[in-house]
Structure formats: structure tokens, C-alpha cells
């Protein structure tokens, strides 16, 4: 039953921020009565969604067990507390995967259920629940989202030939999966050089998932994004945030703002580049929990050097481009192996001849 709730939570990734993606399954006598998950925009919560479905179907939940992937909330926001809703619905037992570290909850939801006489069990499915909501947990604990670096290149880590040719190193299966990955994130991020060179759309173009396109973010210290770019001209359809420093001219900012681009000013480094740690905090303060970093090489290197890359998805094609090819990651300037960021393999699978490896940063 908890596996079913976790599957529901995964379905909501990328569309619930600033709230976590939660799944809820309500069961009685070994039979699933209703399923719920956090809906788009974070409301309703999974428990409220399941209870509402039961009410609509005329189902009584008295004496049932609720399996939830995160502690039910205990605070009043735009909706009443889910802990109170479970009590009012007649639920007698709650199996919860993980305590919510949000200080507005942080054990209070479980305590409220117990005080009302419900049986509460905590920890079933904990590891998977924590992985699903790793971005939400990071934002609560560290004030920043999870950063997931996407790489797509050759066996020797090149993303283009020396002349710049890159279409296509990986095949159709890998490219489709990359769009699936976009749909599971709140935002997708590129640097100014990639935005200028590729003029990307950065949308999810899988059938039926266009509405799941994430916020598009450009790190652009001088706000040089072209007003004629695909990103700028579509900003009123799918949001675009431009992260710049105070050195960006007011005229450039105003021109982009007039097109619907949201300007986010953050601190800069001595060399004029954006301080990515400051950018991470700025995104966290806006409620973003999961960011897919797609390029280019200098942006990837900046996040790696700052210790901000939490996951890597590496799509590798079976070809070799050599040292004169363009690298997926810029210079990291590490003199010793001990300084290099290390990652642990989570999974590997074939995609029509290419290989996808997913890695997690070692703490």
C-alpha cells in the first residue's frame, strides 16, 4: 500500500512546488477505497484529495487506514490541516513514511493524530519518500532547491565536435527521456551562452505533457538575453526567470520585463559572474524545490565547484569524439582527487542504444 502511495507522489513531481509531492492511499479490510495525491500548484494536499474523492463517491472512511508518504500537515494555510481532516473522516490508523521537517509541522501532525486516538506508524518507505521529496527537504533545511545536472554526450564526455556540431549525439529514446526528466522538475536552468548559441525553448514536448513544462531560468549576469529569443517571446506562455547581477543595465532589464520575463537580481563574484550559491538561495526563497541544470559547460562547472549538484543524469551515446570535442563540464581546477565531487550510482538503463546513468552526490 505504501508503494502505491509512493507511486502517486512521484506522479506529482514538478507541479506541486512550493509544496512537497505526496501520495495517499486509504484502505479498509485489505481493499483500497481511494487514492489521492498533491495536485497542481500544491492544492489540494494528498489526504484532502483522497477524502474528497471518498465523499464524492459516498464512501465511508470510518475505521480505515491511511498510507501517506509525508507527515500530514497540522497548520492552517489556504486549507485546513490534513491531520484534522483525517480525524474528522473517521480514519483509525495512519502509516506515515516520513516526518515533515517544516517547522510549522515537524512532528505536530503525528502528535495531533495520536492525541485524537489514532494509531500512528512512522517509517515505512522512509528512504524512497525522502528521495522523492529530496528537493523539498533541501529547501526547508538549507533554503535552496535540489540541483539535478543533465549531461548528454559521448563516451568520453563530449557534447559536440570541435566545430560545434551536436545534433544528434544521443538518439531519439534519450531525447524523449530528457523531456520526461524536464516534466519532473519545477524549473530548468541554462547559462547565457547556451541561451544565445542554441536559442532553446526549454519546454517539455512529449505528447500530453506540454502543460508540465517547468519555469525556464537563464543565468545571465548582464541581462543580455535577446528580446527576439524563443525564451523571451514566449515568457507570457511559460514563465522565464532571468537571474542577473546589479551590473545589468536598467534598459536591458526593462525591455525583458516588458515581455513578461521575471528579473531576479543576485550577488555577483569578483569576476562579474553570478554567485551560484546566491542564486540557489534566491530560487529557494521563491519556493522552487527541483531544478534541472542543462548547460552549458561553465554553468555545470560552477554548480559542481560550489557543491550544489545533488543528482546527475548522464545520457551516453556509443561514440568517441576526442580531446578536441567540446566538454560537457568546464574546468574545475582541482589539484587533488580528494577535492573532486563524488557521486554514487543509483541506476543505469538502456535507451535504444544509449545509456542513462543516474548518480547521487555522496555526502
- Sequence stretches where pLDDT stays below 50 over 5 or more residues: none
Helix/strand-derived category reads alpha/beta
Strand order of the largest sheet: 11-10-9-8-12-6-13-16-15
**What is the string of SSEs from the N terminus onward?**
HEEHEHEHEHHEEHEHEHEHEHEHEEEE
Helix content bin: 25-40%
Strand tally is: 16
- Fraction in beta strands: 15-25%
Distance linking N and C termini: 31 Å
Rounded to the nearest angstrom, the radius of gyration is 22 Å
Q: Please summarize the sheet with the most strands.
A: 9 strands, mixed
How many helices in DSSP terms? 12
Identify the notable features of this structure and list them briefly.
globular; 16 strands; 28% helix; 363 residues; alpha/beta; nine-stranded mixed β-sheet; five-stranded mixed β-sheet; single chain
Quick summary:
This protein has 363 residues and is of the alpha/beta class. It has 12 helices and 16 strands.
Amino acid at each position: 500500500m505504501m508503494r502505491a502511495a509512493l507511486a502517486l507522489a512521484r506522479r506529482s513531481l514538478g507541479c506541486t512546488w512550493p509544496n512537497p509531492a505526496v501520495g495517499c492511499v486509504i484502505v479498509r479490510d485489505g481493499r483500497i477505497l481511494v487514492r489521492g495525491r498533491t495536485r497542481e500548484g500544491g492544492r489540494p494536499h494528498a489526504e484532502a484529495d483522497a477524502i474528497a474523492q471518498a465523499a464524492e463517491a459516498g464512501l465511508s472512511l470510518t475505521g480505515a487506514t491511511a498510507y501517506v508518504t509525508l507527515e500530514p500537515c497540522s497548520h492552517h494555510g489556504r486549507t485546513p490541516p490534513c491531520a484534522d481532516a483525517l480525524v474528522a473522516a473517521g480514519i483509525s490508523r495512519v502509516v506515515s513514511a516520513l516526518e515533515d521537517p517544516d517547522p510549522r509541522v515537524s512532528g505536530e501532525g503525528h502528535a495531533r493524530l495520536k492525541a485524537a486516538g489514532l494509531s500512528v506508524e512512522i517509517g515505512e518507505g522512509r528512504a524512497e519518500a525522502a528521495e522523492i521529496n529530496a528537493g523539498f527537504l533541501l529547501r526547508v533545511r538549507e533554503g535552496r532547491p535540489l540541483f539535478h545536472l543533465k549531461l548528454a554526450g559521448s563516451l568520453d564526455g563530449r557534447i559536440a565536435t570541435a566545430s560545434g556540431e551536436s545534433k544528434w549525439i544521443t538518439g531519439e529514446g534519450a531525447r524523449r527521456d530528457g523531456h520526461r526528466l524536464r516534466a519532473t522538475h519545477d524549473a530548468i536552468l541554462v547559462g547565457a551562452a547556451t541561451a544565445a548559441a542554441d536559442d532553446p525553448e526549454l519546454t517539455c514536448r512529449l505528447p500530453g505533457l506540454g502543460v508540465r513544462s517547468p519555469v525556464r531560468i537563464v543565468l545571465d549576469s548582464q541581462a543580455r538575453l535577446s528580446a527576439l529569443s524563443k525564451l523571451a517571446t514566449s515568457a507570457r506562455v511559460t514563465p522565464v526567470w532571468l537571474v542577473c547581477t546589479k551590473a545589468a543595465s536598467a534598459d536591458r532589464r526593462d525591455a525583458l520585463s516588458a515581455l513578461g520575463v521575471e528579473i531576479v537580481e543576485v550577488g555577483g563574484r569578483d569576476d562579474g559572474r553570478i554567485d551560484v550559491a546566491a542564486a540557489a538561495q534566491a530560487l529557494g526563497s521563491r519556493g522552487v524545490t527541483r531544478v534541472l541544470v542543462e548547460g552549458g559547460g561553465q554553468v555545470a562547472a560552477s554548480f559542481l565547484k560550489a557543491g550544489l549538484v545533488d543528482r546527475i543524469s548522464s545520457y551516453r551515446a556509443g561514440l568517441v569524439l576526442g580531446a578536441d570535442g567540446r566538454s560537457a563540464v568546464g574546468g574545475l581546477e582541482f589539484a587533488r582527487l580528494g577535492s573532486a565531487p563524488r557521486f554514487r550510482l543509483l541506476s543505469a538503463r538502456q535507451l535504444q542504444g544509449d545509456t542513462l546513468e543516474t548518480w547521487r552526490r555522496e555526502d
